[in-house]
Amino acid sequence: MNQWHFRFRHGHAAASARSQLGFGLALGVTALLAACSSDTTAPQNGACEPLQTSAPAQIQLTTVLGAGKDAHGTLYVADTGTARSSGERVFISDGAGLRRVPVVGSGSQGGGANADYALSFDDGTTRGTLIIHVAASKVTSMALGAVDSGKGSLSDAGTSSEPLTVLDNASVTSLTVHDLKNAPFIEYVAHTASADTLLVLRPTYDWSYDDFRVFFGPRDGLQEQKVQSVSRAKDGGSTVIVFSVGDATYTAHFPVESNGTTFMPGPATLDTGKATLPLTLDAAKPSSLSDATFHCSG
Fold first, then answer.
1. Of 17, 49, 253, 263, whose CB is crowded by the most CB atoms within 10 A?
2. End-to-end Cα spacing for the chain
3. Element (H, E) at 191
4. How many other C-beta atoms can be found within 10 angstroms of the C-beta atom of residue 238?
């Protein structure tokens, strides 16, 4: 008997949990060791608003896994995704085009010419599980399951579902497609005893450690700094971020500790090369930075 394989994604629900704790991985998600390194461009003093969300970019579909339509004419499309999306993507019709919705969990059975997919999505207003059955390299049926954002068992996805009319994949490839609203996600906000603030940002979706941004300095002039590397341990999310401040190299440590039942932030520190300073973590939300001004690198 074929086995279902499930995986859960970086996304809406996980990001909400992380924002309460101020560290990067949701509880129960295994963190991966990784490192990133950087460009060599020196920071430039340009006033900016790094917490603003840009308008969704227009993108292209990759290989379409399935396209279906419900009784109201709403289109549901899934594709294989990109290297940055780390898996399949789901799109829903929006006017004459398609808009991407976050995939928060996915499952598959079989593969290649004979496969089943269950893709759970949730953008805060629209949620469900898109179920696709493929046999002999053809989509034979599609349905919209009632699983609540992948928070239940994806194996239940087919127990209560609405059949979709299967469409030819070619019928959707010419549609205008818009990506997610990829808001900046605050990994950490912290301050030193001398009132300097350290802010660490990344995109909410489709991110890697190469996308981390660091701002450091007084609240009335938070300067973007060059990130040298980011690493995250397998202990639940302990993170080390190395960045430049002028000619100096600073290292921020954000440890995670377990009390036996859950992970909590440990004592954060900032090594300036001359001293190790304690960091006080602030609430990881934009309101914590309402009085800050920013200067971005070039």
1. 263
2. 55
3. strand 184-191
4. 21
Question: Model confidence over 105-143: pLDDT tens digits?
Answer: 998 888 889 999 999 999 888 899 999 999 999 999 999
Question: What is the distance of C-alpha 253 from the center of its chain?
Answer: 22
Q: How far apart (Å, rounded) are the C-alpha atoms in residues 41 and 271? A: 23
> How far is the CA of 238 from the CAs of 166, 176, 214, 258, 280, in angstroms?
45, 41, 17, 11, 16
Determine the 3-state secondary structure of 298 from DSSP: coil
- Residue 133 to residue 109: CA distance in whole angstroms: 9
Tell the residue number behind the tokens 């089943």, with chain if given.
Answer: 116
Q: Do the Cβ atoms of 219 and 226 come closer than 8 Å?
A: no
Contact 166, 191 (CB under 8 A): no
Q: Which residues on neighbouring strands pair with residue 173, listed in sequence order? A: none
The pair of three-digit structure tokens given for residue 223, joined into one six-digit string = 């300067």
The dihedral region occupied by 252, where left means phi > 0, alpha psi between -120 and 50, and beta the remainder, is beta
The residue behind tokens 């009784």 is 71
- 143, 129 contact by CB (below 8 A): no
Task: Give the pTM.
Answer: 0.78
